[in-house]
Amino acid sequence: MLCSGLSPTGRALFDIDRTRPLSLYLHIPFCTRKCSYCGFFSKAGCSEAAIDAFASKLVSEIDFISQSLGKPFCTVFIGGGNPGILGEKRLLAIAKACCRWGKPSEFTVEMNPENAGSWLEGPLEYITRLSIGVQSLDQKVLDILGRNSSALDTLRGIEESQRLKQLCGFSLNYDFICCVPGCRESSVQDLKKIRELARFEHLSLYSLMVEPKTVMGIRAEKGEFSPVGDDDQADELEMLWDLLESSGMEHYEVSNFAAGPDHECLHNKVYWNMGQYLGLGPGAASTLYSPYTRVECLSNVDQYINSPLFSGYRTEALGRIQQMEEWAIMGCRTRYGLGSDDCLARFGVRLPSFLEYPGFTYDGSFFRPGREGFLLADGAASYVLDALASSDADGEESRIGQN
Ligand code: SF4
Fold first, then answer.
1. Which H or E run includes 9?
2. How far is it, in rounded angstroms, from Cα 95 to Cα 109?
3. 3-class DSSP state for residue 294?
4. pLDDT level of residue 398 (50, 70, 90 thresholds)
5. How much is the pLDDT for 14?
6. pLDDT (0 to 100) of residue 402
7. pLDDT for position 400
8. What residues does each domain of the chain span?
9. Per-residue pLDDT for 3 more than 60?
10. CB 3.0 to 4.6 Å from 381: which of 25, 31, 311, 329, for a disulfide?
């Protein structure tokens, strides 16, 4: 039997609702060196033997899940860390395992720019989308970020990704970081320059988050620099958003732009729509149905490599209130917003009829952010949750079928 020999948590992973599509996220927890701002789980300086052992374990877990699933994954995303560290043989083995029953609708691999190269031509038989962590084209900004790629390597990587794109015809995303203290003009120049240098279908633009326990977080705590304040961040973001929109990119989520609806990231939309996805690898999270359950793999590479299949995973069933919170927070961040029918289908209640929030429109069916709303998404989500709680309490608009 497939599940024999697994821990109880491992067996819980197989309680997947197979009537729903299943996406797959693979966390590759390796980097050459930690960037100063990085709050992701990854280890620097691991041996080739450890990366080999990790890749073999990951392939075994994918095989196990695939065999049980019996159909293609909906989408696959290999992130990290820096999956570019895997190299051709290991990436190819992982990609093949992911496509055992056929290719997913979208297969993304992210990597640092210096890893883009001709070795990818084999894996690109399976991969449909490459996501390159540019962050900035300005060495001064990369130095402030303590980035582990140089501006020169980044430019070479962009050039190489363009060459591969012409050869293999995949979709490209470039990641940028803005709101770096004292670097507003560099961000403007970065976005102008990438349009001149490259053809791409997607761009992600993240505000720098100065997180505790990172090198930058510790420096900020010591008073060595001050993160950009909220108002200045909002000014900078609006200016950069204008620039991207004027070049034809559509702003479809707070931090994401696509060259038209067909190029929006399908895998991220699975997260935002609270779809079902399985995360494998140390530090990866999953959301599985039914019931709605969060599964997390422990952030420990050695333990992951040396323990039996699926033994380092922890599960937690999420209740209605937690699901509602996730739904509201994610929905307020996308241009599709929150739908009243969707709320009814998921939670048995409609959106209250009185919703009104700065930067959001509401026509009784959809509560959606505009430009200003994207800056106020978190506050709007709290407002909607309060409104749902109060309408729940007075029993007015919350009854199923009302409106
Ligand atoms: S490459 Fe990415 S995951 Fe690795 S240290 Fe830098 S920011 Fe973190």
1. helix 8-12
2. 10
3. strand
4. very low
5. 66
6. 37
7. 39
8. 8-272, 320-393
9. no
10. 329
CA of 125 to the centre of ligand 1 (A): 26
CB of 178 within 8 A of CB of 239? Answer: no
Residue 260 CB neighbour total at 10 angstroms:
11
Query: What are 171's strand-pairing partners?
Result: 129
Which tokens go with 368?
Answer: 């959606």
The conformation of residue 350, written as its DSSP 8-state character, comes to: P
Put simply, whether the predicted model's pTM sits higher than 0.90 gets the answer yes
How far does residue 205's CA lie from ligand 1's centre (Å)?
A: 16
Distance from the alpha carbon of residue 242 to the mean position of ligand 1, in angstroms: 28
Top-tier CATH class for 8-272: alpha beta
Q: Give the three-class secondary structure for 298.
A: coil
For residue 291, the model assigns a pLDDT of 86
Burial zone of 395 (CB within 10 Å; 0-12 exposed, 13-18 middle, 19+ buried)? exposed
Q: 237 or 310, which is more confident?
A: 237
38 lines ligand 1 (CB under 6 A): yes
CA 71, CA 22: separation in Å to the nearest integer?
A: 9
Q: Among 351, 343, 352, 296, which residue's Cα sits nearest to residue 323?
A: 343
